[in-house]
Amino acid sequence: QLLLCIFTFAMVLVPEAKDQSKAAKGRRRGLARPPTATPALAWALDDPYTSMADYERSIQDMVRQLRNSSELGDTKCQVNLRLWRSNRRSLSPWAYSINHDATRIPADIPEAQCLCTGCINPFTMQEDRTMASIPIYSRLPVRRLLCQVPGELGHKSSGKKCHKKYQMVMETIAVGCTCIF
């Protein structure tokens, strides 16, 4: 019976371990088997920020916080280690301004603006212009107001009135700054 157990173990469990080991080696080389399930999709369905309304509400909250703070007027090229916000602790500090566009939803989006031409030297805490602060961009989904004039693209020509329609587009916004040589 003991021999039968060892034989079963060797035939069933050892090849499975070899397959897992091969999969791990393949991932290290950049090769991976396609997943059998889609865990990202399952996660996204439980995510509270998947709806556009929640996303737009979070941006409105950021804009409201920015307007209520004194940060909009502070444009000094300096690091403040007492603040917890990363934009003021960075060696390439940035401030936020409000990017306003009435033809987009959300109309107001916080946008980063680099405060230094150079970068803060961590040893002297002074600006060093041998390096440069540059913005980091990200593409954000927004709804843009498009105006379709009747008579164009199959519409009946019943006048020059514009039919307002929003379309989802990706917009490039500066979200922070970083240092480069």
From TrEMBL:
Q: Does the keyword Isomerase apply?
A: no
The region annotated as signal peptide is 1-17
Fetch the SUPFAM superfamilies from UniProt: Cystine-knot cytokines
Q: Which UniProt keywords apply?
A: Cytokine, Secreted, Signal
Give the GO cellular component terms, alphabetically.
extracellular space
State one molecular function term (GO).
cytokine activity
Domain of life, per the record?
Eukaryota
The record's section on InterPro entries has: Cystine-knot_cytokine, IL-17_chr, IL-17_fam
Q: Which GO terms describe its biological process?
A: inflammatory response
Principal localization reads secreted
Localization, per the record, is: Secreted
Similarity annotation: Belongs to the IL-17 family.
**Can you say what this protein is called?**
Interleukin-17B
Q: Which organism is it from?
A: Phaethon lepturus (White-tailed tropicbird)
